[in-house]
Amino acid sequence: MEEEFGAFLGSLLAGLLMLVLAITFICCLCWLAPDGHNHDDGAGPPPEGHHHDDSAEAPPDSAGGTDQATPPHTHSIEMTPVEAAPSTVAYPPPTSPYVEEGAPDVDCMICLEIISVGMEVMVFPCQHFVHQHCGANLLRDDRRCPYCRQSI
């Protein structure tokens, strides 16, 4: 009787081991897929956030005259135009190359020292102030504002 029970227990454990291995294999296949599903077969609805417009013209492929075929996963990517961010306006431009009486205290964007009344200043197109000598040195090396990186 013990031998029959041992054989039964052995076959039961072997069956459970096979079941665990099968479940593990299936789970590994799901984890290897990018989002757990295979969308290239076209079966089922597209994942949330993806929209496919059947009325839209299909992108050209190798038969359409281009050198490279378009990968199937790029057919549903929507292109959205991106606008440039507005430049930072720190202060209104001065009316003269000198800081006038009553102007707010401003720091030079290069040396970070205060630009005081009567000093010569340079104003970049992005409206950032620098000392005249700091701006001249910067323009020799780099043609961008050190604060916002806008081209000068």
TrEMBL record:
TM annotation in the entry: 6-32
Keyword Lipid biosynthesis: no
Domain annotation RING-type: ranges: 108-149
Family matches, as InterPro entries: RING-type_E3_ligase_ATL, Znf_RING, Znf_RING/FYVE/PHD
Gene3D superfamilies in the record: Zinc/RING finger domain, C3HC4 (zinc finger)
SMART domains per the UniProt record, alphabetical: RING (SM00184)
Gene Ontology terms, MF aspect: zinc ion binding
Residue span of region Disordered: 41-96
Comp. bias (Basic and acidic residues): 41-55
Alphabetical keyword list: Membrane, Metal-binding, Transmembrane, Transmembrane helix, Zinc, Zinc-finger
Entries under PANTHER family matching the protein: ALCOHOL-SENSITIVE RING FINGER PROTEIN 1 (PTHR45798:SF97), RING-H2 FINGER PROTEIN ATL61-RELATED-RELATED (PTHR45798)
Name under which the protein is recorded: E3 ubiquitin-protein ligase RNF126-like
Gene that produces this protein: LOC109716233
